């Protein structure tokens, strides 16, 4: 089931490439609302990562778009490793001004991790996520993005134990 969902989301990302706006993103994520002592600790250890993604955004109206987001992340702590996968997001733009507009998005992703988190039975993880952001006009056809996204990572109770890793990711992006 996990592999089927992973393949379906990957194919969705490929089908969205034609006629899509492309956004290049870099981000930093850190543990949030996890067990342990402190704000960004996972099992009493700090948790953080660096993320790079390419968004393929297809507009269905002025305010609604569908995004396919293949990504790769380097997990820095508690142990180092790589996570890669794809997310499908629905984005809604609101507060449309002449020089900027705000948005909210949410969706589901799947990932494979080279590291194994304590308390998670699988390296294949599901990633429900929600975010808020701002798009700025910085040139005639160039846009800058700033987004804050909450991501929950778990194996969706398909295997036990199903310990979750929650993170907050701050991202900046650009579209030409």
Topology:
Layout: H1 2-15, E1 21-31, E2 41-42, E3 45-46, E4 48-59, E5 64-77, E6 81-96, E7 100-113, E8 124-137, E9 143-153, E10 165-175
Antiparallel strand pairs: 1-4, 1-10, 2-3, 4-5, 5-6, 6-7, 7-8, 8-9, 9-10
Protein name: Outer membrane protein beta-barrel domain-containing protein
Organism: Desulfurella amilsii
Pfam families: PagL
TL;DR of this structure?
8% of the residues lie in helices and 61% in strands.
Verbal overview:
With 176 residues, the chain is mostly beta strands. The protein has a single domain, classed as Beta Barrel (Porin), CATH 2.40.160.20. 8% of the residues lie in helices and 61% in strands. It contains 1 helix and 10 strands. It has an 8-stranded antiparallel barrel with strand order 1-4-5-6-7-8-9-10. It has a two-stranded antiparallel ribbon with strand order 2-3. The protein is globular, with a radius of gyration of 16 Å. The N and C termini lie far apart (37 Å). This is Outer membrane protein beta-barrel domain-containing protein. InterPro entries: Lipid-A_deacylase-rel, OMP/PagP_B-barrel. Keywords: Signal.
Low-confidence stretches: none
Helix coverage percent of residues?
under 10%
Side by side, the strands of the main sheet go: 1-4-5-6-7-8-9-10
Number of domains: 1
Distance between the termini: 37 Å
CATH topology: Porin
Any key phrases for this structure?
single chain, mainly beta, Porin, 8-stranded antiparallel barrel, two-stranded antiparallel sheet, OMP/PagP_B-barrel, signal, Lipid-A_deacylase-rel
């Amino acid at each position: 089931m996990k592999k089927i969902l992973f393949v379906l989301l990957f194919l969705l990302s490929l089908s969205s490439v034609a006629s899509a706006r492309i956004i290049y993103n870099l981000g930093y994520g850190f543990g949030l609302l996890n067990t342990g002592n402190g704000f960004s600790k996972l099992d009493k250890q700090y948790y953080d990562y660096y993320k790079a993604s390419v968004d393929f955004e297809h507009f269905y109206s002025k305010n609604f778009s569908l995004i396919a987001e293949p990504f790769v992340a380097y997990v820095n702590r508690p142990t180092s490793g790589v996570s890669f996968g794809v997310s499908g997001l629905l984005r809604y733009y609101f507060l449309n001004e002449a020089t900027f507009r705000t948005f909210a998005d949410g969706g589901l992703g799947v990932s494979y991790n080279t590291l194994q988190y304590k308390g998670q039975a699988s390296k294949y993880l599901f990633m429900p996520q929600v975010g808020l952001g701002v798009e700025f006009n910085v040139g005639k056809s160039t846009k800058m993005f700033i987004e804050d996204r909450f991501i929950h990572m778990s194996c969706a109770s398909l295997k036990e134990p199903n310990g979750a890793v929650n993170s907050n990711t701050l991202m900046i992006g650009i579209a030409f």
